[in-house]
Amino acid sequence: MKKVTKIVLGLLLVSTAFMGLAGENSLKPSMQNDHLLMWPELEQNLQETFAGIRSATVYPIAIEHIEGFGYALHFYIGWTSPSPELVSKLTDIVQSFEGAFLQWTSKPDFNNRGIYISALPFGKFRQSTRESVTKEVSINNLRSEFLGFSQFAKSATQFGGTLTEPSAIDRMADFFQSDSIYEVILVSDAEGFQGNPTSPHDRCLHFGISEDEWASLEQIYDTKLPEPIASFILAITKRYAVVRVAKNHTQLLNSQMKQIAQSRDPAVRLPAEKLALILDEASRSGLGAVLLPRD
User: Fold this and answer.
1) Is the separation of the CB atoms in 57 and 164 below 8 Å?
2) Mean pLDDT in residue range 33-44
3) pLDDT tens, position by position, 122-166
4) The domain 179-293 is classified under which CATH number: 3.40.50, 3.40.1760, 2.60.40, 3.30.70?
5) Which are the contacts of 170, defined by CB distance < 8 A and separation ≥ 6?
6) Given a cut of 80, is residue 175 above it in pLDDT?
């Protein structure tokens, strides 16, 4: 089994499950001086490359090492409203760039409100006799390729606008949700949601409910809890159930969840605080919430 070194920098928590390419690999956190020294240069280039996208946030680049294949990178760009045109433009840039060491791929975010971009060693995609494919991608290979991509993207198109700072809830982002068993989507019509957006305001939160947090929810559930919070928590503890919260229930549920979050027991308080944050964001946005179990 190939081992992956996960290098977490800035806001991103990276998993090789991105694009379904290496989800079986075990993770071993590590951080070396050369990675730390190189990251600011790559991050600055990333921000400069997409600085003109209107009302967008370019989140920090993340680097990983996959044993036997070498270095890879990932980053995410998000914006405030659905834009299939911008997704298409950025997708064309990624698909048009021909790397020497890395295969560049992209994936639109839910409701076309952003895009995930990833570059992995060619060896992860296909067998080849080319030296650049069979040889492990070094950190210097990664640097030169990313700087080449940055120049290509800058020359390929011009964006008119300014970047925005991430919101408080987006600062919690785990874009590749490496340990989430529930994906959280805020939608206008929670009951009618079948996987596609129900309004232009629907969006995916970039963090979910982890295995440990889910296990802790069983400690929260008590038949003496008032409704609707009792039914809400009970539904989440049913591991593979889709949990739906209508938008007219989020405010009350948020208030009840905040009371539970006052517990002194961290095992209860922390998952309750996260659920309260999700419900609060849904309530403030005038949206419902859907918690989708991840396989």
Assistant:
1) yes
2) 78
3) 877 665 445 555 589 999 999 999 999 999 998 876 665 555 565
4) 3.40.1760
5) 57, 78, 206
6) no
